[in-house]
Amino acid sequence: MTGIALRHEEKLQPPPGHPLLGFRSAISPHVAELEGHILGWAERYAVLDNARARDKLARTRLGELVARAYPTILPARLEAVAGWFTWAFVIDDCYEHDAGHYDEPAAQTLRVLVRDLKPDATHTRLDALLADVWHRLAAGMSTAWRLRFTQHMAHFLAAFKYEAFNRQVRHVPDLLGYQQLRRASGGITPSLDLLEVATEQEVPGLLHEFEQARVMFNRASDVVVWVNDIVSLRKELAAGETTNGVLVLAEKHHVELPEAIDLAYALVTRQIEEFEQATSELETLMSRWRGLEPENVDAVRTFTDGLRSWMRGNLDWSGNSDRYQNADGVLLSTDSSLISPSTPSLSEPH
Question: Best label site of 61, 68, 146, 315, fewest CB within 10 Å?
Fold first, then answer.
């Protein structure tokens, strides 16, 4: 494997003129409210390790990510969407600690969604948080949306197992396999589903499955996770992470990390080009699709704008968030009992 040294002065942002910088940068005016909701959810369900973890969550500026990814989010949807991101970032850190249990905890979490469990019917505090959030998110959404979101959550939960295996054996996956795993492991697919919750404009189930819409969805997902791999590189190198796209490209092309970063941004350029091509094709298709109601067209266009906001908002937030700027090793939670009640707690919540 090629060397993995990365000098501090090396740039992790896209080069001037990159198409990602051509997307409009926007942010919701509700940033402070979102930050308050995120800390509120974490405290209500006691899912953080201690005061240091709470400080880490505050410095992560997760509310800013939500505000940038969903700049037109409705006030009535702020608390629910903030709650899902609190859950997602905590569970991600729990599994980064290598909890060692994957299949049954994943099935247990999915039962929260499938059975519409109430918080007091769940097994862990983290599942209770998700149950509370789920009832708020799913309110008013169709069965088709609920099934799609649940499927994407299943992919997200399953990916933790494979990432942990890669860490344990110090394996850098090949590019083909990595592209499939990363889209799931980043939690971006359910995050994009929340675009419809945030605006209360749901894309009809059939349209969402059009080939062009699927390409748009997948390419936007890929842009977010590949950019995340670049901007989080220092943090992940410090943590011993091996499931990172920059490392995958370095291994595949036998280059050092600066060249691999350039290759990653070139890949993002191609992903954006494919996104825009699919967007154009979908507009043409909708103009010729008989019986399509104006509100459905508006929902698709709002969703498309949201995909662009996610791609650009993720980049803008990454430059401000302590999660990537400070590789201090502090996790939001290392408490295995948040994932599986059969495992001992490694730390007491405060």
Answer: 146
